[in-house]
Amino acid sequence: MYLDKIVESKNQDSRFLADRKRDWEQRLSETKSDQRSFVGSLKASADSEPSIIAEMKRASPSKGSFDFKSSVSEQVGHYERGGARAVSVLTNERFFLGTLEDLQQARQGTRLPILRKDFLTESWEIPQAKCFGADAILLIAAILTDSQLEQMIEKAHSCGLEVLLEIHDSEELQRFLHLNTAPDAVGINNRNLQTFEVTLDTTAELVSSLPKEICRVSESGFATRSDLMRFDGVVDAFLIGESLMRSHQPEQTLRGWVKG
Question: Is the pLDDT of residue 45 over 80?
Answer without folding.
Answer: yes
